Each structure stands twice: as C-alpha cells, then as structure tokens.
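Researcher: Before we compare anything, I want clean individual predictions. No alignment, no superposition, just each chain on its own. First chain goes here; please echo the sequence and then give the structure tokens.
Model: Echoing the first chain and its structure:
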Amino acid sequence: MKGLLIAAPSSGSGKTVITLSLLRALKRSGHAVGSLKIGPDYIDPGFHSVASGAACLNIDGWAMRPSTQAGQIACIAEDVDLIIVEGVMGLFDGAADGTGSSADLAADLNLPIILIVDVSGQSASAAAVVTGFKEFRDDIKIAGVIFNRVGSARHEQMLRRAMENVSIPILGCLPRDETLALDSRHLGLVQASELGDIETQIDAAANLISKIIDLDTLISLSEPPQMAVLAPTTPVIPPLGQRIAIASDTAFSFCYPHILNGWQEGGATISIFSPLADEAPSLDCDAVYLPGGYPELHAAKITSNRNFMAGLNEAAKCNATIYGECGGFMVLGDSLTDRDGNTHAMAGLLPIETSFASPKLHLGYRKLRLLADGVLGRKGTEYRGHEFHYSTQTAKSDQFLFAAHDALDEELGSFGCRRDNIMGSYIHLIDCAD
C-alpha cells in the first residue's frame, strides 16, 4: 500500500475538490483507493467516502497519539492499495503552537506531497512559491505540483516556462471551472448527504481531472507510509456504557468513527436512532450519545418531536449516562436561540441556555482535564479535543466538566456542564492525552 499527501500553500486553493476528483478518477480506473483527512474536520471525510466508495478517517498530529494515528492508517490500509491524504490549511500550518501541520505528518510518514497552487493573478511568481515551499524544510518531499484556476492557454505557457528550472514536475494545469467547486455554509462545507446531485458533481470534476492529469504518473510518485505499528495503551475514550444509543441524522452527524470503533472494541454494543425522525433511544440502552451537528437548523422540529424528548428524559430517569458534544450539548440544555432570535425549548437535562443571536466564532484545539470522576475517567484524566462553533452559552452551572487550555497552554477556564449522569460540552473529544 502506498500513499500521497495533497497539500496547498493556503486554504481555499482547491485541494478538497481536487482530492475528491482524484479519488473518483482513481476508483473508476480500477484502483482500490482510500483516504485520510488531516485535522479535526468532520465534513470533508463524508465527501471523501462518496468519491472513493470507501471509509475516510481523520488523522491528527496534534490531537492524536502516535498509536492512534497508526491505528487510523492500519484501518484504512486493510482494503486499499493507495491512500490519498488530504492536508489541512496551508502545508506548514498547524495548531497555534506550531505543531500538527500537514508537513509534520508528511515527514513522520515519509509521504510524498502533491502541492496544489492557486495561480489566480500570478504567473512566474507561482514558480517562486513552489521553490520556496520546496526549500522551506529539508525533511519533506514535494513530488509534484498541480496548478489550479489557470486562466488561459497563454497563462499555462507562462507557468510552464517559469517552472523550467524548478526540479518538480507539473502534473497538470486545471482551468477556472465551476465544475471544481462545492457549496459552502457558515461552518465549512455543506454535508455530502445534503447535496442531492453530489454524485453528478464529483463525476463531472473527475472527468475534467482525468483529461488533464495522467493518473499513472501521479501513482508512480506514491510511496509506502512509514509508521511503526503501535498498539494503543489506553482506549481513545472509555465506552459510555455497555449498550450505547447514538443519535445520527443531518442534525447529529459529527461523530468520529475511531471513537465508535473503540467503544465496540471495548465490548459495547451500539444502536442508532434519529431525533429528526422523532425516534427515541433504545429502551434497553444504558448510555446515550448526542454528537455535534446542526441542531440550530432544525430546532423547531427537535422541540416538537415528543417521542425523542420523552425517550431522552426517560433514559435520564433510568440513570443512563447521557453525553452531548457541541450541538448535542446544546440540545441537552434548557433552550436554544436561533439566528433569527427565536428561542426553542430543549431537553432541560442540563441547566444551560445557548444562543446564536449574536454569533461569535469559538475555534481551536483544546487540552482538557476532567474535573470529577465519571464514565470519561478519573478526575484529572487528560484529553485533547477541538472547539468550533458560533453559539454562546448564556447560562452556566457551577458543575463544570473540564478545565481547558489552548494549544499554547494558555488557561481558558472551565468548560461544559455536568449533572449526575448527564454531561456535555462544546468540545469534540479526539483522543486521550497519553
């Protein structure tokens, strides 16, 4: 099994759409191809899976232990002969402390890099960008470059001429084309499940890519990832119970597969229910997990879905553990105020209120320490996670779940809320710290 890493000088260069196009084109040409997404992104992996027909998992150099990273690679490698890894932000950009970049992971895995360069508004300068990225670090290998958003045949000629003295092959020059675009929303890309014509879009993009990029040449640049096979010493997150009911639909979809796999490997059984379809957690569950997502877009429906709300409250009365992350955390509170200022009653299981009335971005990696013993571990257990939301917690409890620091180890105060067996926070847990 070999691999390549798709990266770019900055976000917005087109690496996600090009990655999707390559996955679909490689699949159609008969390759067993899989993918990984660097960083905490929930949405891009869904698009990867549509494009390749195979699972896509996250890999994160800042938030995951080496053993967890090795497990992600091993899981993807089981059924594929080529792994495409999509980078995050710019090639050298990572957490606030400077670690966890795509370049760091490429160096750790010895993965060749295909650099996607948006050449809008530049010609010869693009060669300087490529040269600078090649020489910035000597522990990575930029194996090829794809120029994106090329304006014309003359523009392509100028780019190729400028690259004549740069010892990196140009794998293709992609034109400005609406085919290579996807819709966006306030929190990244729209989920793949929300686009009825996603297959058509990816097929069209793959058709364009296949005409311009020689896939055999691309594959010839791939190399086997190099990482020691490490057995995790502790689970990512302990199972919440023996029978865990998990909310899953377009309002509750931000769930890392490696966490669910870890629960199953730990002996837990999992059942799925849809709050939007007014389904309740399984009657025999001893734990309920409400992942993140977009409950604010469906707040009125969630409020009126009495079977879901009654089932959630019944699980609480039966002393089931109930854990919510981000959107799931908001649903466990007393109320949720949407962007239009409408306030919707929520489950009322935690003494919090959340609001989008004055949107404010909360974003970044988080170091977390448990403040009390519980299903997530003993007091003092440390985790790493990620925060990304626009809502604000307008009412708080003194029973917090975590003490938090950012990637620079600056103290952020207490996060989340806990009431007996019911708990949650805005943080998406990714891995335990050690």
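Researcher: Okay. Second chain, same rules.
Model: Second chain and its structure:
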Amino acid sequence: MPIYQTAHYRVNAGAVDKVTEAITEFVAYVATAEPGTIRYDAWQQIDDPTRFVHLFTFADDAAHKAHGESDAVRRFEEIYRPELTEGPVVFTDYRLIASNTD
C-alpha cells in the first residue's frame, strides 16, 4: 500500500538559496536512485519563500524506509537542519481518498 507524506518547514531568509539548491540536487538523486519513491515534489511558498512543503508518495513501507535511511537524506538534513527557524520539520502521513491522476 502506498504511503503519502508531507514535510513542512521554514528556514532562515539568508539560507533560502542554499536550501533550494540542496532540494534540487536531492530530488534529482531521488529520481534516479529511488524507484520506490513514486513521487517527490518540493514546493516553496510564493508569499514567504522561507517556507517549504515536500510531498512524497512511497510505493510501500520498504521504499519509505529505504528513503529515510539513505546517505542522501542525511546530507540534505545536514544542509537544511541548521537553518530551521520554527522547530523541526513536521512530517505527516496520509491515506489517499481520491485523485484525478492515475
């Protein structure tokens, strides 16, 4: 069963460029190295570019675990974690009710 998850966080204004660059590199890694990560979108809030939301769809528990335990996740965390301004990243799991996609 797929796992749907979001991650919400805010970073220091001076770190926005560094974090967006790290996101771009990280998502490129996910696209090539994590076949079980069906979807990974990273969004930046338009009216407050210090706020980010990541949307994940993992094929199953094994894919979710593999993602969370990857060296790439640890490297990404090393970049954004010191820049967080409102506490840790908030991860929330969801179940899909309906979608207009496949």
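Researcher: What stands out in the second chain?
Model: The domain at 3-94 is CATH 3.30.70.100 (Alpha-Beta Plaits). Additionally, The mean pLDDT is 96.
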